[in-house]
Backbone:
């Protein structure tokens, strides 16, 4: 009888591991070129994307202007991620921000520039 219980426990453990492996296979990583230029831009992009459905991790590299997003492909896709970046006021793989949206560091000509000194870029 105890061998049967042990075998049942082992089978149950493998079932759980198999289910987790299937979930992990839906995770993908995409790199999106954008136009943030300072620490404020980095924070806005990372924080904004972190709240998108299906996003697991976000890392924006200021030196390359590339945001790497780890996401669940069952819950979102690359196009939705690009649109989310556009809604924040930034370009995404050459897609322009939504009309009327502009990041704080990329204002329209008539707007005042709101970056602070020391944000990491020249004016």
Residues:
């Amino acid at each position: 009888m105890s061998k049967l219980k042990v075998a049942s426990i082992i089978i149950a453990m493998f079932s759980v591991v198999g289910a987790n492996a299937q979930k992990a296979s839906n995770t993908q990583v995409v790199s999106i070129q954008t136009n943030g230029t300072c620490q404020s831009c980095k924070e806005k992009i990372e924080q904004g994307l972190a709240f998108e459905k299906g996003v697991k991790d976000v890392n924006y590299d200021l030196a390359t202007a590339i945001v790497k997003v780890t996401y669940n492909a069952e819950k979102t896709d690359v196009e939705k991620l690009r649109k989310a970046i556009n809604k924040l006021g930034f370009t995404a793989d050459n897609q322009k921000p939504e009309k009327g949206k502009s990041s704080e560091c990329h204002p329209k000509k008539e707007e005042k520039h709101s970056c602070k000194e020391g944000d990491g870029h020249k004016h």
Notes: The two ends are 77 Å apart (CA to CA). The first helix runs from residue 2 to 24. Confidence is low (pLDDT under 50) at residues 107-113.
